[in-house]
Amino acid sequence: MSSRIADNETTLxxxxxxxxxxxxxxxxxxxxxxxxxxxxxxxxxxxxxxxxLVGYDYSSxxxxxxxxxHIATYFVVVVFLAFIASYPQKxxxxxxxxxxxxxxxxxxxxATFAVINIVVGGRSGFGMYFDTDxxxxxxxxxLPFIPPDGMDRLERFLHWFFxxxxxxxxxxxxxxxxxxxxxxxSPDGMTTLEPRATAFLSHPLHAAxxxxxxxxxxxxxxxxxxxxxxxxxxxxxxxxxxxxFGGRTAFLLTLIIVAIALLWQVLRFTAGKxxxxxxxxxxxxxxxxxxxTISVLAYAGFFDQFLERFTEDGGSARSRVLMLPLLxxxxxxxxxxxxxxxxxxxxxxxxxxxxxxxxxFIQMSVYQGVVVASLVMSGLLLLLYDVYRRLEAAVIFPxxxxxxxCNTFGSFAGRFINFxxxxxxxTTLFRRRDVPRNYVT
Length: 441
Hints:
Distance between the termini: 36 Å
Strand content: under 5%
Order of helices and strands: HHHHHHHHEEHHHHHHHHHHHH
Number of domains: 2
Low-confidence stretches: 1-22
Largest sheet: 2 strands, antiparallel
Number of helices: 20
Shape: globular
Helix content: 55-70%
Strand order of the largest sheet: 1-2
Structural class: mainly alpha
């Protein structure tokens, strides 16, 4: 009788375990693959503007088609193939992927269907498949197999990267010298040097979006390896860098989030909750110090370029008003499956949106159809859910922030390698500390 009760208890315990928990005890990537992954991470943070600077022709209209794909994308394909070929437990690996990465796999097939639709219909958007979709898929499939020691090194690298990136962005704003200049192409074919800072993140809006997500991550306590006395200065540095990048929405959203965080600390203190002495000092000092700092920077003309973005936005506000009427202007077939590229571009120009549609879903719908855009968008959300399940629950805050900001410009409707940078960032900063360190979970 006692053995039967024990068996029943064991069965109940197994049934009570979360369905997402995998007990295959898969090993991490081999040392050789780990070195390749480290090299891949370094290549991932190589700005596309640097590639243009050395003659790779990544962003320019001319050049070979092969140069329109980031070098990190080529490399991650090689790393993934080497990882699959060298992994000792291939059957268990397949079971692990099916159990934990089903949404990511769905995203891959949705993106592949989208690119087939583009090729067959002769539509626009073929280039986004590699850097935006395929790269993101492979990145998500590889990250779980980086061991804890490697993730610790990666977190330290990320903190250093964002610190240097912010300093470089501020330097570019103050001096007017863009270290990695970004050339933009106007509808009439003229080239223009982007006046806003880009630093190492290639595009000012991409830089502002990732930086804002990093600030939110630090505010809610992610990135445990960053020393506590450096957290507040790092947040202040990154917030200042947002001015250099010129992302209006990202900057205002960051100010609101920081204000809420400070108010929360004050309320905790007044309610008698334990609050660190450093937090109290910062909360008291932030107002007078902030006012003095802002006054000095304003007197030096630090905000002039940023404020111009509110008065001269290049048609961004107008684009957001007209993008839905643009979508409704297509007939039923083109609305569902995408119009001919020339006709779609003509419609975009007729609505005065030559500089693009300021929303990724609408932009994909215009050129590829609502069906394809819905498949890709739902796949992207499922991929993010797969990422969320492996990490601390607080990761939902930077994910929501990042998605909200991505929907204010073209983002992942074009070549958008920064989505992979975001996934690397949150996977590193929000990794769970209560999981075994000797096998993959």
